Amino acid sequence: MIRKNKPVATLELTDHVLLVTLQRDTLLEDGEMEQFQDFFAQALSAHRREAVVLDLHAVEQISTAAIALLLKIRRKLQDFGMKLKLCCIGTDKLVDAANDRFSYEIFKVLDLHRLFDITDHPGQQVARILSEKAGSSSQTAVAC
């Protein structure tokens, strides 16, 4: 179900890090994925940074097509020489592969935990640490 009044994601920018926080609890339907893909492509072209932190704390359900989208994003960022870090794919999420419930366990079953840099720390904390390592201090927030 697409909630038109709730943004698909928010952006927070530092000099070196682009933090993208998904705001929807599901990423299942084609419309949701297209909306996120468009949002991400616009954010990336407008705000190229050294690293992208993708915070998935709100996401409880994800489709296999959305996992494929994450793989595409990872490949694209690698081509640009950018790092990708996924946040909040934790063991506290529901595990139900038959219904595409989102979990780190699904990433382990698919061996995706070897491809992605994954942490359970909140996206803002990870982005702040990466920015401080790079010597950045300014920050801007945007919702789309």
Summarize the structure in words.
The protein has helices spanning 30-46, 64-79, 104-109, 123-134, and strands at 9-14, 17-22, 26-27, 51-55, 61-62, 83-87, 117-119, 139-143. It is of the alpha/beta class. It has one domain (9-133): Transcription Regulator spoIIAA, CATH 3.30.750.24. It starts with 8 loop residues before the first strand and ends with a strand. Mean pLDDT is 78; it is low at 94-100.
Secondary-structure-based class equals: alpha/beta
What pattern of helices and strands is seen along the backbone? EEEHEEHEHEHE
Low-confidence stretches at least 5 residues in length (pLDDT < 50)? 94-100
Biggest sheet strand order reads 7-6-4-2-1-8
The termini sit apart by: 18 Å
Largest sheet: 6 strands, mixed
Q: In total, how many beta strands?
A: 8
* Overall pLDDT confidence: 78
- What portion of residues is helical? 25-40%
What is the strand content?
15-25%
The name of the CATH architecture is: 2-Layer Sandwich
The protein's oligomeric status is single chain
The CATH class: Alpha Beta
Sum up the structure in keywords.
144 residues; 6-stranded mixed beta sheet; 8 strands; globular; alpha/beta; 35% helix
